Amino acid sequence: MEIGSGPLRIQVVSDGRAGMENQALGLAEAIARLTPSAIDIRRVKWQPAFDWLPVGLKAPWMLASETPFPANGETWPDLWISTGRASLPLSLAARRLSGGRTFVVQTQNPRLDPALFDLIVAPAHDGLTGANVVAITGSPHRITPQVLAEAAPAFADRLEPLPRPRVAVMIGGRSGAFDLTPTHAGALAEQISKAVRAVGGSVMLTFSRRTPEAARSAMTEGLAGVPGWIWDGTGPNPLFAFLSVADHVLVTEDSANMAAEAAATGKPVHVLPMIARKAPGKFARLQADLTARGVTRPFDGTLPDWLYTPLTETGRAAQAVLAAMGRG
Predict the structure, then answer these.
(1) What is the pLDDT of residues 172-200, one digit of tens each?
(2) How confident is the model over 49-104, as pLDDT tens digits?
(3) Cα separation of 275 and 173, whole Å?
(4) Residue from 25, 47, 26, 28 nearest 36 by CA
(5) What is residue 63's DSSP assignment?
(6) Half-sphere exposure in the Cβ direction for 166 (13 Å, CA)
(7) CA distance 232 to 209
(8) Taking the mean position of all CA atoms in its chain, how far away is CA 78?
(9) Given strand 296-298, what is the order of strands in its sheet?
(10) Closest Cα to residue 320, out of 112, 97, 81?
(11) What percent of the chain has pLDDT over 70?
(12) Most buried residue, 41, 154, 191, 268, by most Cβ within 10 Å?
């Protein structure tokens, strides 16, 4: 493919959910740290009548949002990075319609023939292999020391007075593999409360969009007497600031995204158990990988310190993308 002079033009495509968008955007930002780049973010949504269709039967006219493709006469981006099921038909179309002018990268396992894309950045625990597959631990994300440091000042008035050790808690929720019932959420809250009170610390907690409302209520009630901040989802998201000022990170075992973000901090990452709905499979492989790297330990009700080398898998993936484009 031919790439013109000037900054690398990167288009990020997802359905706009933070967990999806941050994967593609994190990879784009990592590439921009390696070479001058201009990043354009596009969020797409399919009309409900067509959203259920298989990837191969979807067409851009079925979108409920604007098409992410350039208008007539406009230039195609040099690099297209997308994440999630909603983006798959558009990634396939971009590769075809651009006539090879756009290098198409898909993150996550697309569950399609890898040869349909120029490059796939997939979680190693998914077991996807191929000549154009870059396997990484966890998933791409936006976390870097600089990003965290830049996020903290906006929330300093809420976070600086909190007693140390400060414990960031990232809670997931119900999925195909795990569940978080109110009873289990309450038990986790009690265990976290005892651990934090024992060391005179504080809690900074965020929920996922998958966290059931009843589980949120149980955890909020169970931690009500502990110093800290339980973010209720209103206003700017303080997660990056939480990770910046935290001394420990607690994360539920159900999310590769949250695990990868926590593993990039260099801070002790304690894994909170969920209720398994089926054999953990790929999640067990991910946790085994992180444990072998010295990143994580099961949460046992205490808060010991340990050291490890922060994971920089997103940066490694960025280098692989540039190398595949002939710019590495």
Answers:
(1) 999 888 999 999 999 999 999 999 999 99
(2) 999 999 999 999 999 999 999 988 789 999 999 999 999 999 999 999 999 999 99
(3) 10
(4) 28
(5) B
(6) 18
(7) 11
(8) 24
(9) 228-230, 202-207, 166-171, 248-252, 269-272, 296-298
(10) 81
(11) 98
(12) 268
Cα separation of 326 and 3, whole Å?
Answer: 10
Q: Within a 10 A sphere around the Cβ of 306, how many other Cβ atoms?
A: 11
pTM, rounded to two decimals: 0.91
Give the residue-averaged pLDDT of 9-29: 95
What are the distances in angstroms from CA 321 to CA 44, 80, 107, 134, 259?
Answer: 23, 11, 11, 9, 23
Q: What are phi and psi of 55, to 5 degrees?
A: -50, -45
Sheet holding 133-136, edge to edge: 37-43, 8-14, 79-83, 103-107, 119-123, 133-136
CA dihedral 192, 179, 23, 319 (to 10 degrees): 80
SS3 category, 166: strand
Residue ranges in 253-309 assigned as alpha helix (H) = 256-263, 282-292
- φ, ψ of residue 164 to 5 degrees: the values are -95, 155
What's the distance, CA 242 to chain centroid?
A: 16
Cα separation, 73 vs 99, whole angstroms: 14
Phi, psi of 258 (to 5 degrees): -65, -40
